[in-house]
Amino acid sequence: MFRPLVATLLDEWIDPETVYLAGFAQRADSFWLDAGPGATTGWSWVGGGSVEPDPAAIRALACAEPPGEQAESGRFSGGWIGWLGYEDAAARAGAPTSPVEPGIPQQLWLRVERHVAFDHATRRIWAFAPADEIAAFARDVAASHAEPAEGEPEPVTVRARHEPGEYAQLVERCRDAIREGDAYQLCLTTRFEVDASVDPLAVYLRLRARTPAHHGGLIRSGVVALLSASPELFLEVQDGVVRTHPIKGTRPRGTDAASDAALAAELVASVKERAENVMIVDLMRNDLSRVSAPASVAVDRLFAVESYPAVHQLVSTVSGRLEAGTTVGGLLDAAFPAGSMTGAPKLSAMTILHELEAAPRGVFAGCFGWVGDDGALDLAMVIRSIVVHADGAYVGAGGGITWRSDASAEVAEVGVKARGPLAALGGELPPGW
Fold first, then answer.
1. Are 48 and 102 in contact (CB under 8 A)?
2. Residue 248 a catalytic site member
3. Fewest beta carbons within 10 Å, which of 8, 29, 104, 291?
4. List 193, 232, 410, 413, catalytic entry
């Protein structure tokens, strides 16, 4: 039975990695939502819980209305941490789907039993636990000590779902569908798989070190885990406002300052990338309008470049003021799967992609993060991620296809996106990618 949590402020800063390693890494059900190594902004949360037996209760929760002053201990004071996969959401939206793999849940939520919140901007920490346990838990957190445990991976063999030439042919079939007027953008994806024993924690430590991101995460339940270095915040609800931050447009980082700046400038100037981004912005405006007050949906940011260790990304922001009584399930039904992972129009795009990809996406192209007891939420896209299961792991990757897409460039973009997660596993891209 769930017990309400209370918070206490700790006296000194401790790195989230140390707290996770010392207090939660050995638990069967644990989480680490990660603002990234050395973060100076944002929040991280680490903790443990138990698998929620009734996910419908989360869908029925009313999204947060405008509250009073936000607590110093942050937006998340208790609730659920977990993920939602692609196929369940696509089916709910009316699209055909492929059978998902057994043993990898499409939906997994941990009901948080205790956790630690880290405010990276102020370098303050709060411990959360039931009232009769908080003092002892806070003492344990304050005494956390652990040695770094990253290490180098053993080499593994990577198997691609599609050969590069096959993927290029699928890009051309996407362009055929666009020419026929069946879609105007399609997010075509593929998968890379590893058959090996995978240590989720060791792999995640390598992933975050090599490709840090503001919405990283490790969510583990038994033999299944999601490891993410996601740069895309999908949905956040705060003070009665919903925001989405679609990413469309990618360039690799340069080898020096001049080439790096040139690649970022090329991204902003690209007619194809700007078209791809604005198409999804328009789609997300439409999605959010289904649950937002009339005339409240706005584009807060358009064509902003965000730079990460491996890539530059073109990012926009769309927001709306939620209609009173909107539930978490109602918001997800309006906006999920995310347009940045489907294309547009959404239902037509999902139907076309089901035929072209001819295999499940699984947890990839879904979302993960937290839903608070108060109906606030923060969910990132499952991209730049690794899904670990009993027999190995997989990495999904893809890109948005428009009429102006070049098949060889799209193949290269998939390689740019998959390279970091595969390296964390100890694998290399198969030839041609």
1. no
2. yes
3. 8
4. 232
